[in-house]
User: Fold this.
Amino acid sequence: MTITISISSTIGGSGKTTIACMFAHLLSANYKVLALDLCGQCNFTEVLLQDNTVRGTICDVLEIGNVTSYIVSIDENLHIIPGDQWICSSPSKFYIQGYKTPEVVFAMKELLNQAKTAYYDFVVIDTPSTSSKEVLNLSLSISDFAVMTYSPNKLQLIKSWLNKIKYVQDEFNPELRVGGILRTRFNDIEASHIFYNREVYRRHPEYCWNSIFHNSPLFSNIDSNSIKKVQVDTAFKAVYDELILRLLKTRKNGI
Ligand SMILES: Nc1ncnc2c1ncn2[C@@H]1O[C@H](COP(=O)(O)OP(=O)(O)OP(=O)(O)O)[C@@H](O)[C@H]1O
Ligand SMILES: [Mg+2]
Assistant:
């Protein structure tokens, strides 16, 4: 069975794409992974796929409907459906056909679920922070395990994210599980970082990851070469190990 992990947040610049790249890269050492870029900035695609000649994108998938034709192989274990800056306009195709808002998400969800063939162990999705509501709903609708990246910011933003998850569970995807809140881009120096770091754990002990993705120059400008450096892998080890543990726990609980 394919497990779909999405990285999303109510906070822009909180490391979603960096985390998605690292998860896709590290998982692909042992598993078959499909990276799915649903963000119009296409940074996930830029980092993982160093090939500007690729023509088909996620918009073609949503337009034409044939998922497998647009999957690009990066290496044996890692494949990608490239992102597209115009993804926000993809829902309009369905509105023109007379679909109503929830039906648009269901129609796109059905298309993308075709990518979850038995071939892939994992699908890793990079999600935009701000986009059409359909694209965010779509990302969560096809996910089993939703991780929020939380960089120092208003704590209320976690509530907003949890409310969004609840909405998608109720409307589109009862299988969706909260994969947790991963504290990102924290340092141990600034008073606000120390405060928010503690508060997230205190307020959301059930969801807050133990490991933290600290601010580090190693991750300040990640590209396909740096992502493969052992140094980067090592600095990310605790976060990756916790991903695997949390996935196993979700499985064990029969979810
Ligand atoms: N742990 C880290 N330490 C230092 N820099 C980081 C770290 N994580 C991410 N960055 C840098 O911060 C910037 C934002 O990261 P990233 O693009 O991953 O965030 P994002 O949440 O995907 O942003 P957006 O909301 O724009 O999609 C990038 O320049 C990235 O290289
Ligand atoms: Mg991003």
